[in-house]
Amino acid sequence: MSGSGPARGAWGWHPLDSRWAQRVVDAAGVRPGDLVLDVGAGLGALTAPLVRAGADVVAVELHPHRADRLRRRFADAPVRVVRADAADLRLPTRPFRVVSSPPYGISTELLKRLLSPRSRLVSADLVLQRQVVNRWVDGRAPGRARWSRYYDTSIGIRLPRKAFTPPPHVDSAVLRIQRTTR
Ligand SMILES: C[S@@+](CC[C@H](N)C(=O)[O-])C[C@H]1O[C@@H](n2cnc3c(N)ncnc32)[C@H](O)[C@@H]1O
Prior knowledge:
Layout: H1 18-28, E1 35-39, H2 47-52, E2 56-60, H3 64-73, E3 79-82, E4 96-100, H4 107-114, E5 121-129, H5 130-137, H6 144-147, E6 151-159, E7 172-179
Parallel strand pairs: 1-2, 1-4, 2-3, 4-5
Antiparallel strand pairs: 5-7, 6-7
This protein binds S-adenosylmethionine.
S-adenosylmethionine binds near residues 16 and 60.
């Protein structure tokens, strides 16, 4: 999914209902002034409650029209909209959190990047396919030997299919990642 972007029809368009988005952000424990990446921000379902929580948000969105709409919607808020492919994401050089409902197709690539050796990731709350979350919490995740010294993984809120429009064909949950050292 790099270069000209995903193939037509592969844009992973399952926006979160605003009440569920608020719950995900509340559970993430974001504090005023935190730098938070919303990867695959769509039209800002998570960006809006992140702004209300006082975060400085970087909203990453590849779709050109969605990125434009995000810019307009959050023109007066502490939100930087970056039109970029999450697969090529440049991580901040200062500590940051991630609260995101990314397209499921890029979740493994995104997680590898967030947990890479020089990452300043403090915590991540990612809405993902429940099967994928289970894999990351029960010890079957890629590269675990390397990153498990620094990070704990756990399962957060379980989201019903009706938390999205249109409902996806799979169950979802929040994968919580928290730095334990450094
Ligand atoms: C599942 S939707 C979630 C949208 C929003 N976060 C929400 O919860 O309503 C995923 C979003 O990721 C965007 N997207 C798809 N592929 C992407 C990529 N490679 N890099 C960045 N964003 C991407 C889609 O355009 C879509 O807006």
